[in-house]
Design goal:
single chain, mainly beta, 5-stranded antiparallel beta sheet, 4-stranded antiparallel beta sheet, 22 strands, flat, disordered N terminus
């Protein structure tokens, strides 16, 4: 059977007619539209030999598959689409650098370069092995459904702090300058609990221990689907037992882990096997050893598919029974 000859570049209506005449069921033109240039690029020197570069994720509709990071027009890193930050290492102390980022889609279309982000590395400190002190205060507050403001107290170092690294779930997600004690984190999920810590870093790349953790729950997003909190949470005490029941949040897949807080503190993670997860109402019996008459304030939250904790349920008050 002869294949139809390749179609010339035609208008959409002509292309559709030509496809029908050739006996083809579909006619699509090649994707030649590049993604938009990455926005929100920043660059912050983390040490005498490294710079932390960050940018905003492209909209899902752009179909971006990877990002290219350039320094002075020279390609230095290529990252998958789920990475929107990189530490550029092996740099020279006391040197100015300028970075741009391009996005590329599955068809190979490459965006225009982002705006330029400049950073200057500090002077190197020989044989500096003393880390900075940890920030002794960290706070966080929601700033709408998809962002949070994290603040911390200044740290000290014998040669000077050069950066502050914000961590979430043990992973660094942001780097701020030495004069900053606050930052706004974007790209968060609505109605989701986050825990942030901050570390100070000096010019020799020594990092402090974590400062105190700060918890925050982002606001729900109206019209964007169900919330992440367990619903209709109840707690009933009987001798030696507290029975908990709730309706699982709609996270798109079975929820197998829940964190129980008693009197404001996490005490256990309730886990269900994959075959034991019901689609709606959940129940768990909690054995207790505390004396009758002990008062508990209970609340619950679910681990979401992305690994973060969702919003808390309503809080319930129970008195342990004898």
């Amino acid at each position: 059977m002869r294949r139809p000859a390749p179609l010339p570049a035609l208008g959409l209506a002509v292309c559709a007619a030509a496809c029908a005449a050739a006996g083809l069921t579909a006619c699509t033109s090649a994707d030649t539209t590049p993604p938009a240039a990455p926005a929100g690029i920043t660059a912050q020197a983390g040490s005498a030999t490294s710079v932390h570069v960050m940018w905003q994720a492209a909209p899902a509709a752009d179909g971006v598959t990877n990002y290219q990071v350039f320094e002075a027009g020279r390609l230095i890193r290529e990252l998958p689409a789920d990475r929107t930050m990189v530490d550029v290492t092996g740099l020279a102390p006391r040197t100015a650098y300028a970075f741009t980022v391009r996005a590329r889609d599955a068809a190979g279309n490459t965006s225009a370069p982002s705006a330029e982000a400049a950073a200057t590395t500090p002077a190197a400190r020989a044989e500096d092995r003393t880390p900075p002190t940890a920030p002794d205060r960290t706070t966080a507050r929601a700033d709408g459904p998809r962002s949070a403001v994290v603040s911390w107290s200044a740290a000290s170092d014998d040669t000077g702090v050069t950066a502050y690294d914000v961590h979430q779930g043990g992973v660094r997600i942001h780097t701020a300058g030495p004069a900053e004690t606050s930052t706004t984190l974007t790209g968060l999920q609505p109605d989701t609990a986050y825990t942030f810590t901050v570390r100070a870093r000096d010019g020799a790349d020594n990092s402090s221990p974590d400062g105190p953790a700060a918890e925050v729950t982002t606001a729900p997003a109206p019209g964007r689907g169900p919330g992440t909190a367990p619903a209709d949470f109840t707690a009933d005490a009987s001798p030696g037992t507290v029975t908990l029941a709730w309706t699982a949040p709609d996270t798109g897949r079975p929820t197998t882990e829940y964190e129980l807080h008693v009197n404001g503190r996490p005490v256990t993670v309730i886990q269900f096997g994959a075959g034991a997860v019901a689609g709606g109402r959940m129940e768990h019996r909690l054995g207790v050893a505390e004396p009758p008459g002990t008062a508990w304030e209970l609340k619950l939250r679910a681990r979401l598919p992305d690994g973060n904790w969702g919003a808390f349920s309503v809080q319930r008050h129970v008195v342990l029974a004898g």
